[in-house]
Amino acid sequence: MSAKVLNGTELAAKVKAELKVKVEALREKGINSGLAVIIVGDDPASRVYVNHKKNDCAEIGIKSFEYALPASTSEEELLELIDTLNNDSSVNGILVQLPLRKHINEDRVIAAINPEKDADCFHPVNVGNLMIGKPQFLPCTPAGVVELLEANNIQIEGKHCVVVGRSNIVGKPQAILLLAKNATVTICHSKTANIADICRSADILVVAIGKAEFIKPEYVKPGAVVIDVGVSRGADGKLVGDVQFSTVSEIASAITKVTGGVGPMTRAMLMKNTVKATLLQNNLL
Ligand code: NAP
Q: Are 137 and 102 in contact (CB under 8 A)?
């Protein structure tokens, strides 16, 4: 059996086309949508991500404001910039590219963003709203995974979903979103015993650990759906996921690829949150 490849690039293009129409309609009412992206230092991977986000904004008609700050920027300076952007009505969404440098406290920075402008959905208020089932925004990567499943008519309700990874930006919110869709959810992490057995009991397996090709066929039930969130760089410099695609795609029923799977969906969900923030701030929701 060869798995169906779930195409995130195609679906993200569709989502962005729909958002473009909404953004144009807003502009006709005299409302512009704007996203501020802050990058501290010159990490090449972060630079690539920020450039992608700027391109997405341009494609949809969202105005992007880039703040490329030197690596020496202090936490106070960053907090001052966030305060300015919180009070700037042309900025609807604020995103701070993570990870930040060690001398800056990420938690304090995230907490400084106005929750109504928290396009990444990392602010504790938005995370809390998600936990109680009343989300204002959805976390981008987990929401992208759910949209990819639903757009491909993959049933979540009643299924056993295993999420490997428990980070605040992927694993934990992924589990909450799948639970909200009435799945039965198990979360695995680096201290989980018998992880292969647990993964093999999954109808839907979502892997977000950042360990190249960790998931091999012995972790996968034949016919399962496998979503690969991880991105690492292989010895040859190429991007590689957490799942060994060549072997797992032989036994799964559906699978994502790295690249062209979850990554484009994450970015599309960021655009969705920015448009939603624009609507919220203009009392249109
Ligand atoms: P993270 O903060 O480093 O968290 C990694 C998680 O994986 C931790 O919970 C860790 O467990 C768990 N883990 C590590 N090794 C493991 C193992 N051998 N077995 C089981 N669990 C293990 O990473 P993240 O931010 O969640 O990102 C995960 C991956 O997704 C990375 O490759 C990242 O680049 C990628 N990512 C992709 C997108 C996208 O759009 N495609 C978006 C975000 C992230 P402990 O908690 O026990 O340490």
A: no
